[in-house]
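Lecture 7 notes: from sequence to structure.
We start with the chain below.
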Amino acid sequence: MNRSELFRYVDLEVSDASLIGHYELDGRHFSEEVHFENVTSLQRPALVAVAQLWFFLAGLSYYKAGAARHVDLGDTPIGVKGRALFDAALRDGLGEFSFRNNLPLDDVIITGGTEATTYSPTLEPSRVLIPFGGGIDSVVTLTQLEHLDRSLFIVSPAEGRFDPLETTAAVSKLDVVRATRRLDPQILRGDDNFFNGHVPVTAMVTLLAALAALASGHGAVAMSNEHSSSAPNVRWRERDVNHQWSKSWEAEVLIGDAIGERVGADFVVASFLRDRSELWVAQQFATASEYHHVFRSCNRAYSQSPGQRAKNWCGMCDKCLFIDLILAPFIDRATLREIFASEPVSDPRLDDSLRSLIGLGLEHKPFECVGDPDESAVALRHVSQLLQWSDVRRLGELARLTSPDRDFAELLETQGSSRVPAHWLR
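Predicted structure tokens for the same chain:
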């Protein structure tokens, strides 16, 4: 397929409770709509300024269809920090897309965009909005921040809400601020002339959450991205390729700086789990038994098409395998089998996937939201030594082939840097 020549940011419409972004790819028009619930008017200047950041990143869903050589940002304000975020989102946020399509984006020229204005909205630092995805990460964040005034932020597709996410959110009994996102039907339908691949969705959701927080009286956004989300999957053409780039430390800093450029540094957007391992998250989740039989991390439950959504854990994907593996040190085997209605860790059909998770695969870490190989290897070593798993001898055989740099106790301690404010910590 041939690359497109020009991708244009045409216009952003902002009404009381909705956004519409308009884009053009070599003259072909695309639009994306987001409708909010439980917010005040989005038309205040500070909110429009944050919406503009979303407009830039949301455009990447349509840019990728042609991977244009020239991007024209038009006359929408972007600012110095906003431009740094956009440049990284295009080159690193689309890193997996580039790798899978063997399509380097080093030659892309970015023009347009104007200076950004800084506003000073009234904030409530103790009121925190938590983007919620229905998995163990956001459950742990909401339970750990119970001393604060919390609400959940949920993004739903126009095609219908995700049942497991809604069921899990209902257990929390927290208020929900919602955004319903309608992708352009041309992208959902596809086209033989379109390139396909992963886009930095979490970065887009983070900006929608920031906008929703400002429009609903919250003074902060608490994301749920762990330390290992910064670990790359593969090195390609002298660049790290990370499926989870938009959950990474780099992305968090860039997003925080870009938002700060528009509404000041007092508005906090930070990941509560940034300095924590997946194993620590699993340990905390194990104590939240009210969520054990409702949460869902299997991506097959979250298809854009309602008819293609799995009604239960599929038990066969990398995500099911990984979640089963990291929970196994903390939740007994029988309970896990009830949760998954299967046992991914002991399933010999998943041996190749397990080897990839622990760093023994022939290729790279799976392009999934899973922990780094060290974390998986440490979890496997621990599980293989538990009496209740002793009949699965393959686990011990694989564990002995690994040589992680950290041990189980180390991974339950803090890992690296964090931007979490002191009042979030108890």
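Points to note: The chain has two domains: 6-274, 302-411. Residues 6-274 form a domain with the Rossmann fold fold (CATH 3.40.50).
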